[in-house]
Amino acid sequence: DADTSQRGLTASEYAKEYKSYCGRERVVLRKRRTKLRVEQFHIIAQIGQGGYGEVFLARKQETGEICALKKMRKRTLFKMDEIRHVLVERDILTATKTPWLVRLLYAFQDPSFVYLAMEYVPGGDFRTLLNNSGVLKEEHARFYISEMFAAVGELHGLGYIHRDLKPEVRPASGSPRLFLIIPNRTSSSMVRDMSN
């Protein structure tokens, strides 16, 4: 190919490089197939409590990666008929690559719980920011509202409607970037169908 000829690789160098690549790819694919367990995460602290479970600050032991680990009891989800909403949440976070949504790093389950390991965004949520700062200055309020509209607009552009927009679903990160957390009440209905 063009890259090989451009770098001037001989056939034996190319074969050696290709073999090395295949070996690395096998390792990566094997890691992806490995079933995760909650024991592979070191729980640092509880950072949230919701109607369906708890959220913990956790570190993946193998990689040292910090995440927000959402732990939801299956029995509660079943009783409250929320299983479909959790699956939609997982699907949205898996399918989207946008700076406005927290990234889903891992999703796994055990016999009693469902776990979603998401990007950790330090700073608490927007409700905490409001409680701590009191009334926002007008320019700050404009900034946060415009970011919220941009985030929700992008979510709508992906075909989803956010039905539970409140300060708790917007982490107040240290960066100027606004994030949305997809709560279990996000609808997978298409936006264009809802606008008729």
Q: Treating each run of at least 4 consecutive H or I residues as one helix, how many helices?
A: 7
Shape: extended
Instruction: Give the H and E element order.
Output: HHEEEHHEEHHH
Strand content: 15-25%
Number of extended strands = 5
- Tell me the distance between the termini: 51 Å
Descriptive overview:
There is one protein chain. With 196 residues, the protein is of the alpha+beta class. It contains 7 helices and 5 strands. It has helices spanning 2-7, 11-33, 74-79, 83-95, 126-133, 138-157, 191-194; strands at residues 41-49, 53-60, 66-73, 104-109, 113-119. It has a 5-stranded antiparallel beta sheet with strand order 1-2-3-5-4. β2 (53-60) and β3 (66-73) form a beta hairpin. Mean pLDDT is 77; it is low at 174-178 and 183-196.
Distinctive features:
disordered C terminus; 7 helices; extended; single chain; 5-stranded antiparallel beta sheet; alpha+beta; 196 residues; 41% helix
Quick synopsis:
This protein is an alpha+beta fold and 196 residues long. It is 41% helix and 19% strand. It has a five-stranded antiparallel β-sheet with strand order 1-2-3-5-4.
Blueprint of the fold:
Layout (H helix, E strand, L loop, with lengths): L1 H6 L3 H23 L7 E9 L3 E8 L5 E8 H6 L3 H13 L8 E6 L3 E7 L6 H8 L4 H20 L33 H4 L2
Antiparallel strand pairs: 1-2, 2-3, 3-5, 4-5
